[in-house]
Amino acid sequence: MRHIVCTLAPTDLKTAPGARPLRALTRTVVAERFEAAVARADGVVGAHCIHELWMRGEMGMHIERALARLWAVGADSIPEWLPMCYIDWLPRAYDIAATFQASGKGRSNIYLVLLDYAENLADPHGVYVGMSNYGPAQRFDQHKAGIRAAGSVLKRGLEVLTGPVLHLQHIKRAEAQRIELQLAQALAATGLMVKGGH
After folding, report:
1. CA–CA distances in Å: residue 124 to residues 8, 46, 117, 118, 175
2. What's the CA gap between 26 and 53, in Å, rounded?
3. CA distances from 187 to 14, 24, 62, 155, 169 (A)
4. Which residues of 69-90 are buried (b: 16+ CB within 10 A; e: fewer)?
5. Based on the domain organization, do 67 and 121 belong to the same domain?
6. Domains contained in the chain, number
7. Which one, 27, 67, 83, 96, has least CB within 10 Å?
């Protein structure tokens, strides 16, 4: 029986999903690593496996099934950047967000929130683009609690999409304001339903 290397290198455990540490592996090897990760309830490795297949355009039903399996066994160890549901345009969001860079450190964070439009649009999801001095998860909780809430997030917010904008955390306010607007415009230009981005 062939031995399967199931873990990422130690330096990869903190690697952002946009770095795609499994990019060089074949689909078969990524799938084998995913099965081994599920067997060990290893949310980190499993998340990187799902992410890599997702970015390669794996069928949505396969991603949904993999997400359900991983969340069922490894919820405590899954990184916050792995969404809980399939979003067909997630690879596009990563590509677009990667085109934005900040030059210096500051206190502002760019964040994305997945919005639920299942009842009235062909695409069941939209995205809210925001900027805050709070961390993305904390700001999402504030929206949902009605604290300085955008109506779209209060009513339709499903979860924070942390992964695409991990590199846009702790940046200068002026840059965050520019990026918030330009990122919202760039996402909308691809046909996504976008809110925020003031």
Report:
1. 34, 26, 5, 4, 31
2. 10
3. 27, 28, 25, 21, 19
4. bbbebbeebbbebbbebbbebb
5. no
6. 2
7. 27
User: Does a structural domain hold residue 85?
Assistant: no
- Segment holding 179, helix H or strand E: helix 173-189
Residues 72 and 136 in one domain: no
- pLDDT tens sequence across 139-176: 999 999 999 999 999 999 999 999 999 999 999 999 99
Query: Stretch 93-97: mean pLDDT, rounded?
Result: 97
Sign of the CA dihedral with 50 first, then 53, 54, and 58 last:
negative
Is residue 2 in a domain? no
Give which of 37, 40, 44 is closest to 21, Cα–Cα: 44
Distance CA 60, CA 11 (A): 30
Domain that holds residue 34: 10-77
Q: Is residue 1 a part of any domain in this protein?
A: no
pTM to 2 decimal places: 0.90
**Around Cβ 157, how many Cβ atoms within 10 Å?**
19
Task: Report the amino acid identity of residue 178.
Answer: R
As beta bridge partners, residue 55 has none
What residues pair up with 126 in beta bridges, in sequence order?
115
- pLDDT score of 111 more than 60: yes
Q: Model confidence over 52-67: pLDDT tens digits? A: 999 999 999 999 999 9
